[in-house]
């Protein structure tokens, strides 16, 4: 039995419908000044590598002025560059060079909270209870006879209470670290400020925004209790994400914010866009963030969370494509990012994890829509699981024991010894240490090696950009009948058809009838129209359509 998903329309300005976006974790990409920290000039120097890789755009994690309590997601000044990363001139030079190479730039926007070093929050602390300055944030009196208990039972995503008490007795809300106080998005000054921030970066030429915690800015009126907490149930509230609506996430009023942002984006030329990092109770509620009067995209984290099985991937793909049809926007696929364990490790680590990661990449890049690649996945990097505790910098580590540092280790560029060309020649500094095993995974070690993961990405991205069935990104898919545990779908354009086949069955499988192989994640055996596809492998076939 086959299933077909229709093809939506696209226009020349809708570059984001088919883009492959490369996420740059700025601190860990390339260091230009030998201080052990990646920076904007380092990105600028490596832009030709990204052009040659075949991506269309870069998403930069926060580079704004920040105390760096949460890797820059605690912003003290939204209109300037932290000296750690350079300055505004460095940014302008980088974006100019990127555009000259045909690369677009998406920047991270962090609107749910500021740093506690932000001038607004410092003013709020100084002004005291009931002041206009405190109205920009979410301050509240505590419960108990003397206000000694938090205003409600909300928990921080990083663990522990979501409230911190200040010297005058009031409490302020922080859904993340105490150094990240939540803004009051019902306050007109807050809304006006961020509209101005959008224009500031649009005027500098940015092509889009990734909206951090896009579902979190509005909290339910009255700040009601969730009804349970870790202390009473043993279950963290964050585990309800996607399973129930929390009073501090996915409130209906949040859409008013995006409806006010869309005209700003549309007023600039060149197809400026925004993508939501949003979690919602149902796919239908997530789809509400996307549309002609709101945001352009929302990440499909269900694809990232899919288990290694044909049933899991097919269900995720079908659901995402059905929702995209309803809202008239493309799907957005992602396998790894700066907050999640790298998918080589999630899929089993070692040789098993790598071959599955390579196959998943061909699956993702063959699907219609936009794909996001996290830096280093094109090298097949695994999660670094053995970082010394004293070197970990993720603020959630001290509160929960969970750390995202393992996916943030600087990527290897060249050489036999760490930090593998991360900085200028002779530099031995790196803010996190790379494993001794990464010499064979460096860009230099993999370049020109036919079976390397880097060359697999380069080949697949080149085909994706030039193949008529894939180039528009928005094309529909048709599922093919296959053996159990094998996924196959086709996309057609004009007189040619491309079919992606993925073997998740646990045994080699013989496939035929799809044409000539274009690229495979593992060597195929067989000739003519019959091939043996190894376990945990994927292949793209091409054949002409007759009649």
Cα shape:
globular
Secondary structure: helix percent: 25-40%
The percent range for strand residues is 15-25%
| Rounded radius of gyration (Å) | 24 Å
Described by strand count, sense and barrel closure, the largest sheet is: 8 strands, parallel
Intertermini distance: 23 Å
The averaged pLDDT comes out at 91
Structural class: alpha/beta
pLDDT < 50 stretches: 1-11
Physical arrangement of strands within the biggest beta sheet: 11-10-9-5-2-1-13-12
Describe the 3D structure.
With 547 residues, the chain is α/β, with parallel strands linked by helices. Helix content is 26%, strand content 16%. The chain has 14 helices and 20 strands. The protein has helices at 40-53, 88-100, 119-127, 188-203, 230-233, 254-266, 283-287, 301-305, 310-327, 343-346, 350-366, 395-400, 443-446, 453-466; strands spanning 20-24, 57-60, 64-65, 77-81, 104-109, 139-140, 163-165, 171-173, 208-211, 273-276, 297-298, 332-334, 370-374, 478-479, 486-493, 496-503, 509-512, 516-520, 530-533, 537-544. The strands form 5 sheets. It has an 8-stranded parallel β-sheet. Strand 10, helix 7 (283-287) and strand 11 (297-298) form a beta-alpha-beta unit. Helix 1 (40-53) packs parallel to helix 2 (88-100), helix 4 (188-203) packs parallel to helix 6 and helix 11 (350-366) runs parallel beside helix 14. The radius of gyration is 24 Å and the shape is globular. The chain starts with 19 loop residues before the first strand and ends with a strand. The model is unreliable at 1-11 (pLDDT under 50).
